[in-house]
Write a structure and sequence with these properties.
- A four-stranded antiparallel β-sheet has the order 2-3-1-4, with helices on both faces.
- The chain contains seven helices and four strands, in the order βαβαααααβαβ.
- The chain folds into two domains: about 20-80 and about 155-199, Alpha-Beta Plaits (2-Layer Sandwich), CATH 3.30.70; about 85-150, no CATH class.
- By secondary structure, it is an alpha+beta fold.
- Helix 1 (about 30-40) packs parallel to helix 2 (about 55-65) and helix 3 (about 85-110) runs antiparallel to helix 4 (about 130-150).
- The radius of gyration is 24 Å and the shape is elongated.
Amino acid sequence: MTAHLHPAVEQPLSSVSDGVIGCIYQQEDQLVAAVNALAERSVPFSAMRIGPSHNPAAQRVAQRTGIQPDLDGSDPLRGLAGLRAEGDSRMAVDRGGLLGAGIGALAGMAASLTPLRSLVPVAQGQALADILICFVLGAIVGSIWGSALCAQSSTHAGFRLIDGMQEGGLAIVVQAPRARMGEIEAMLQSAGGAGMTRA
């Protein structure tokens, strides 16, 4: 039996009032049972996504259930509100390092003109060593702060789903109001879901 494919979710995966929950199934029948259980409890098909998109088993489940098999196996939570794409996280680290290096170089110049120049024992009047060490320390500290202060990356948040799909499992991601997350998690687990991921 071939089901009509329901339209994919075009908007971001989540809003402020919505949450996202996902898990991994090892067998097609388990995933089909989970989709049917969710549909019976009024979870719309447009709120469910399965994957990985390149997996023939996911394609077969899509034909049986009508759910779009459009989850990216390398980043299933891409587009989720509050999470950054992998490239954005790297840019935050780079920006932090650049800013820290600049501040460190300025601090090194200022320190070389004060009694603090003894931080690095160099000949008097040779401030380059102080500037360089502060530049390096500033770059390191800035990179750490850039990473710590940016939003979590979507690949980090969805690592259980990514690992499960790489091992041959099938993933489902469901968008629903946060108030229903406990109920949906119980349904997914009762169908055999593992590696529960909430965002």
